[in-house]
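so the lab meeting is tmrw and i was supposed to have these ready like two days ago... anyway. pasting both below. for each one the top line is the aa sequence and the line under it is the structure tokens. i havent really looked at them closely yet so no promises
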Amino acid sequence: MSDAAFRTLQLTKTYGEGETAVQALRGTDLVLPRGEFTAILGQSGSGKSTLLNILGGLDRASSGQAWFEDHELTALGEAGLTRYRRDHVGFVFQFYNLVPSLNAVENVALVTEIASNPMRPEEALERVGLSARAQHFPAQLSGGEQQRVAIARAIAKRPQVLLCDEPTGALDSKTGITVLEALSEVNAEFGTTTVVITHNAVIQKISNRVLTMADGRIIGETVNAERLKPSEVSW
């Protein structure tokens, strides 16, 4: 699987013990090729966030195996997972996670200061269409602008992987299109393997691959022969 960015084999995750235990993943097998834009659909509690967190090195599996390229994530210790997140992964979350006391360019610089081969913070903001807002603080930005700052922060270290947890969940449809356009452009320009988890079935139309999850399992997989642009999708 030399072209695979991620592979998992019988991946499980259980939270808690005994009668109160919650089985978030129940033996997940997947292969995600490099450079693709993948959407993971499913209702709350389906296991999609847990899967994303394990792929991103933010959480550990209870059993099974997960690989990023030829690196077995499930065999890494805390130091190894920290290096993996720092060197390979950009994260975009639903609620932005910006530092209120820093302006846009300073929020992006938080990442570039620790990355090995970053782009300039100003360049990252330019790529998401926010050059004119670089000196604005989060409270002075709209929700869509804050999310685009979060995307700029994620891509500024030139990650191989971009993992997005409900990136449009707190946005209206028009603003969501703007955010998805930024993600799609990053995927197309840099070949960044992009995984977006969402409740929004519309996002499947702009994806190369769509996984559907329920009850901790992948219950469906669709490969799109042709992706639509976010602006071409009927919301």
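ok protien two:
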Amino acid sequence: MNELNVTHGLDWLDALAVAAFLAVWLWLGWRIGHPSAARPSVTVLMSDYRLQWMRVMVTREPRIFDSQIMMSLRQSTAFFASTCLLAIGGLLALIGNVELLDGVAMRLSHVEHGGAVLQTKLFLALLMLGNAFLKFVWANRVFGYSSVVMGAVPNDPDDPQSMPLALKAGKLNGRAAMNFNAGLRSMYFALCALFWLAGALVLLVAIAVTAWVVWSREFSSASREIIIDNGSDTDR
């Protein structure tokens, strides 16, 4: 009978990888929301455009186009919230099946009773998905607040309440977008967390790749260059 390697739990390298995972996730979220003035993130740049959208809305008649955009934004948050619920349900079903996880651990690494370790690793992805779900739900609600305030903007552009209410709607829209983007980042990191199943070193590599993807899309993407373009005709 072949001798089995018996695991006694996670080691210091796993703890280091999880600490790095959480630190990078939290730091990226803070940095994207609080970038330097010299290099703003796409999220911050789009918040300025949301305010500009509301300034234009004040003089737009009719405002059907604006309501259609808000409907699309709320549908996006609802879609991702539903997707998170499905993923959370699948992970909970997997985590609850200890015998299956024990069998997977045995086949992959010849570890006896390794299901508990796999459960712990899956909880990290579950944490990220849970956070994403909460962010999407809150984003949907704040988009709703923004829609109501938009509806309160008087039809008369010369009304003294028109612009203040429109800007208030724009700020709410920006806060909703911040939460929506935070939910997307949590989904990125939920996928990253699954690489922990292959080991702490693999998770560290996945963290670096995920951080690079998130960072580049906010600070170095072609879309960002288009957004900050001053209107020149240069093709990108």
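from a quick look at the 2nd one: Residues 125 and 194 are 6 Å apart (CA to CA). The helical segments are 12-33, 42-59, 64-96, 98-109, 115-152, 162-193, 200-219, 222-228. will dig more after coffe
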